[in-house]
Design brief:
CATH superfamily: Heme oxygenase-like
Structural class: mainly alpha
Number of domains: 1
CATH architecture: Up-down Bundle
Number of strands: 0
CATH class: Mainly Alpha
Number of helices: 9
Helix content: 55-70%
Distance between the termini: 41 Å
Largest sheet: none
Order of helices and strands: HHHHHHHHH
Shape: globular
Strand content: under 5%
Length: about 200
C-alpha cells in the first residue's frame, strides 16, 4: 500500500504546523501543554477502547499492543502537572473520537490506520519531545510518563516488527483503499487538534 510514501506530506505537515510547531520551537507554555495532553488522553482512551473491543477480530488482534497504550500514562502526567484548570475537549477532539467510535463499530480494521499514525509517531518522537519538554519547559520526568516505553527494550526491532505486521495485512482491494484514506484521515484529525488548540491559545 506504500503507506509511508503516500502519506509523507501529511506526516511532514503534522510536525511543522499548529501547536506542535509552537511546542517544538519553545514558544508554548506548560499550561497549553497540559491542555494538549488533556485532549490526547481523550483520543487515546477511545483508540485503546476500540482496539480492546475488537481484539477477537483476527486482523486487529496483532495490533492490540498494551505496551504502546498511552492513556494511563497521560493521566499520570495530568495528575502531576494539573494546575487546577478546567478543560473541555476541543471540537476537533470530539470529531476525532466520533470517527474512532464509528469505524470501531462498522469497519474495525480501519482502527489500525490510527494506531499506525499515533503509536509509531510516539515511538519515533518520544525521546525528542521528552528532551524538549525537560530542557525548554522544565517539566520533570514525573510529568513526562507519556514518552516512556519501559516495556520496549529495542525500539528499532520493535518498529521493524510493527511494519512487518502492517505489510502482512490481508485486506481486500476495496479495504486497502479505505485503509489508506483512513491513514490520511488520522493525520487530518491530528492536524485539526493541533491547529484548533494553537488558535485557541493564541487569542
Amino acid at each position: 500500500m506504500n503507506i509511508k510514501e503516500k502519506s509523507q506530506l501529511l506526516h511532514n505537515t503534522s510536525e511543522h504546523t499548529g501547536y506542535i510547531k509552537k511546542l517544538v520551537n519553545g514558544k508554548a507554555s506548560v499550561e497549553g501543554y497540559i491542555e494538549y495532553i488533556f485532549n490526547l488522553d481523550k483520543i487515546y482512551s477511545s483508540l485503546e477502547n476500540s482496539l480492546n473491543n475488537n481484539k477477537s477480530n483476527s486482523t486487529i488482534a496483532p495490533f492490540v499492543t498494551p505496551e504502546l497504550y498511552r492513556s494511563k500514562l497521560i493521566k499520570k502526567d495530568l495528575e502531576f502537572l494539573n494546575n487546577n484548570a478546567l478543560f473541555t475537549p476541543l471540537s476537533s477532539t470530539e470529531a476525532y473520537i466520533s470517527r474512532l467510535n464509528e469505524i470501531s463499530k462498522n469497519k474495525p480494521e480501519l482502527i489500525i490506520a490510527h494506531t499506525y499514525t499515533r503509536f509509531l509517531a510516539d515511538l519515533f518522537g518520544g525521546r525528542t519531545f521528552f528532551s524538549i519538554l525537560s530542557s525548554e519547559y522544565k517539566i520533570s520526568p514525573e510529568g513526562l510518563n507519556y514518552y516512556k516505553f519501559n516495556k520496549i527494550e529495542d525500539f528499532k526491532t520493535y518498529v521493524g516488527e510493527y511494519h512487518g505486521k502492517l505489510n502482512s495485512l490481508a485486506l481486500s482491494e476495496e479495504i486497502q483503499k479505505d485503509f489508506l484514506n483512513e491513514v490520511y484521515n488520522a493525520y487530518i484529525y491530528n492536524l485539526a487538534v493541533s491547529n484548533e488548540l494553537d488558535c485557541k491559545l493564541s487569542k
